[in-house]
Write a structure and sequence with these properties.
36% helix, alpha+beta, six-stranded mixed β-sheet, four-stranded mixed β-sheet
């Protein structure tokens, strides 16, 4: 392989950090050594299978459009760990009402440390790099008695597991400790797109401007900045006005509540004046009023010769109910949403 100066591929594993570069294949012990070695170089990093947290999980098909959000809502069930995680999701199979996904995760602390590398171009789960090798089942020895198995079918990653042995029927063994690091380097050199990644700086939109375009673009930027400043100024003053309006509404709310109560009392008095013209009502209402506890207020009244319905508030609702039930057989006490200035609200219907 012809290696390009200033570009390196890296695989981060439990047994060490494997680097594929123009200086050859180098094994480093920690990220600090990698940071020193990669100074001034572009690098792509693959997280090894023995470091990755991997899980297949099934979601309802409705979650497909927001699959990352669905994963984060169920993250404690998927990975029952007490440390923050950085995840990336690959839908692999959609059937009927469900979608099956590959979920890859690494500790957030590791993600933040790797992202501190100034020339980092991408950070990916290592199994996704096997797609460049074609179809089949691939085995790779990670350590003594531990193998990585990756299955690629129809150009898609369909399985990624750890096993203790290699099956005889599946002999596509990927040799070399640096094989994945060199696959990472290939992706970096060829600018190949990645199906999923924890981080891919290459997807960021880049614009190179010549001097002839610098002044017009700067002018547009200044105009946009001034427009945003004016919008922020208007928003600030509108918010202050809205706050003052809300304060005024809060101040007037008790007056409005008292006005509402007085209005109901006036309506009740009008109703009484109208009903007093009916002789049958006078005695019935007089008997009803005598049973009310002191300081009871009636805010609304309905009368139809067969029943009387009254709504208001009283110092003691149990006393009122007991008094009415001692006089009338048909007494119905209903719930009332009215907020009285004192006592308890009531709404009663008495049948004759």
């Amino acid at each position: 392989m012809r290696l390009k100066k200033g570009v390196i591929g890296v695989e981060f594993t439990q047994s060490g950090i494997y680097v594929c570069s123009r200086d050859g294949n180098i094994k480093l012990e920690n990220l600090q050594e990698l940071k020193e070695f990669s100074s001034g170089k572009d690098l792509g990093i693959a997280v090894g299978r023995d470091v990755l947290l991997v899980r297949k999980y099934t979601f309802p098909i409705e979650a497909l459009d927001d699959i990352k959000e669905a994963v984060m809502l169920n993250i404690e069930e998927i990975f029952p760990l007490k440390v923050p995680l950085k995840v990336t999701v690959l839908p692999i199979n959609t059937s009927g009402k469900e979608v099956e996904c590959f979920i890859f995760a690494i500790p957030q602390s590791l993600y933040d440390e790797i992202l501190s590398f100034p020339n980092l171009k991408f950070l990916v789960p290592s199994p996704i790099l096997y797609k460049s090798l074609g179809e089949g089942s691939f085995y790779r020895k990670l350590s003594e008695g531990l193998y990585e198995k990756v299955v690629i079918r129809d150009g898609k990653l369909t399985d990624s597991i750890l096993s203790e042995e290699v099956k005889e029927k599946e002999l596509r063994i990927l040799d070399g400790e640096y094989s994945v690091a060199c696959l990472t380097l290939d992706v970096l050199l060829k600018h190949e797109p990645l199906e999923l990644a924890f981080y891919d700086k290459r997807k960021l939109f880049r614009v190179k401007l010549g001097r002839r375009y610098l002044y017009p673009v700067s002018t547009v930027f200044v105009i946009v900045l001034l427009s945003l400043s004016l919008m922020a100024y208007d928003y600030y003053h509108l918010k202050r006005r809205l706050d003052r309006v809300n304060e005024e509404i809060a101040r007037l709310q008790p007056l409005a509540d008292r006005y509402s109560i007085k209005l109901k009392e006036v309506d009740t008095k009008r109703t009484l004046i109208k009903l007093l013209k009916e002789r049958s009502f006078i005695k019935t209402f007089a008997d009803f009023v005598q049973l009310l506890p002191p300081k009871t207020k009636i805010l609304s009244l309905q009368y139809d010769a067969q029943s009387i319905t009254a709504e208001g508030y009283t110092p003691s609702l149990p006393t009122l109910t007991q008094s009415l039930q001692g006089k009338y057989r048909n007494v119905q006490v209903q719930a009332s949403n009215f907020q009285p200035p004192y006592g308890q609200p009531f709404k009663v219907r008495i049948g004759f």
